[in-house]
Amino acid sequence: xxxxxxxxxxxxxxxxxxxxxxxxxxxxxxxxxxxxxxxxxxxxxxxxxxxxxxxxxxxxxxxxxxxxxxxxxxxxxxxxxxxxxxxxxxxxxxxxxxxxxxxxxxxxxxxxxxxxxxxxxxxxxxxxxxxxxxxxxxxxxxxxxxxxxxxxxxxxxxxxxxxxxxxxxxxxxxxxxxxxxxxxxxxxxxxxxxxxxxxxxxxxxxxxx
Length: 209
Description:
By secondary structure, the protein is an alpha+beta fold. Helices cover 48% and strands 7% of the residues. Strand 2 (27-31) and strand 3 form a beta hairpin. The longest helix is centred in the middle third of the chain and has 26 residues, at 63-88.
């Protein structure tokens, strides 16, 4: 698979998930039509509010607090989707240690995907698996090398130079983000009150068009 790098703000999945208005209170969403326990979200929020960042978090009953809950819910559902996908696959996936994402990559994949990649090894392992065949075209590498004042790689499929490795990492993570977007649309359903924070139809969205 050959990837052309695309730069732009990742939207962390489009916002057209089906909302289940009458889902039970103990359900935070549905994955493959199976309920995902609300307890997973409550535990994550409790951990956040017991951490060093608690002093800067909004009140739970405020508009911003509800938006935070929606955002965290998307991170948790992303993690659960990736755990489910790994269980479906027979491939052996090596461990994927945490490492910080550079700002441009985090923007490209979106804040929810970036947070899931940072916090969850299953997400990182699946990202490596689904994007392992991504390559950058030789012409694009030669252009990047020229801009950076570097020598183009002898083998475009082997990232020896640091700049080449960074470009390849970014291309693979953006490819994973696109896979994640498609899988989320197909397999995840959201519930009323935990819509995507960017969904213009939910009452706490601050950016109406």
